[in-house]
Amino acid sequence: MKDKIIIGKSLEIKPQKFDNKEIKGVEKRVLIGKNLGAPNFVMRLFTVAPGGHSPKHSHDWEHEVYILSGTATVVTPDGDRIAETGSFVYVPGNVVHQFRNDSKEALKFICVIPEYAEE
C-alpha cells in the first residue's frame, strides 16, 4: 500500500480486549501500523471503561497520547496528573506510567509509538 493514501474508520477495526490483574476494562484498536504498511509509527485507539486502567509499567520507547474524550488520571513518578479531553501527554522512554479512568464515562485516547515497539 506504499504511495497510497488510506482512509479508514476506527470502529470497523476489531478491538483487542484486556481484562486481567494488570489491565482492566481496556480495548485497543491498531488504526495505523504494520497492518497498513506504515514503516515508522503505530497509531492506536484505546478505550478504557470507567474504573479501568492500563498496566503500570515502563519501556524503552517514548509515546505520545491525545485524549479524545473523558478524563485520564495519569500515574507518574511525580504523582497523579489529570488529562482531560483535548489534552496531550508525552511519556518519555523508561518512565513508569499508567492511564486510569476514575470517571463515570468512557476514556478514549490515541497513542502513537515507534513501529518497532508494537507487538
Description of the molecule:
With about 120 residues, this protein is mostly beta strands. It has strands spanning about 15-20, 25-30, 40-55, 65-70, 70-75, 80-85, 90, 100, 105-115. The strands form two sheets. Strands 1-2-3-9-4-7 form a six-stranded antiparallel sheet, with no helix packed on it. The protein has a three-stranded antiparallel sheet with strand order 6-5-8, with no helix packed on it. It has no helices and nine strands. The model has no long low-confidence stretch (mean pLDDT about 95). A hairpin with a 2-residue loop joins strand 5 and strand 6 (about 80-85). It is globular.
Helix and strand layout, with pairings?
Layout lengths: L15 E3 L5 E9 L8 E13 L9 E7 L1 E6 L2 E6 L3 E4 L6 E3 L6 E8 L5
Antiparallel strand pairs: 1-2, 2-3, 3-9, 4-7, 4-9, 5-6, 5-8
Q: Give the overall average pLDDT.
A: 95
Sheet with most strands = 6 strands, antiparallel
Low-confidence stretches: none
The fraction of residues assigned to DSSP E strands is: over 45%
Count, helices: 0
Helix content: under 10%
Secondary structure tally: strands: 9
Instruction: State the shape.
Output: globular
| Main sheet strand line-up | 1-2-3-9-4-7
* CA-based gyration radius: 14 Å
| Span of the ends, CA to CA | 21 Å
H and E string: EEEEEEEEE
Give the structural class: mainly beta
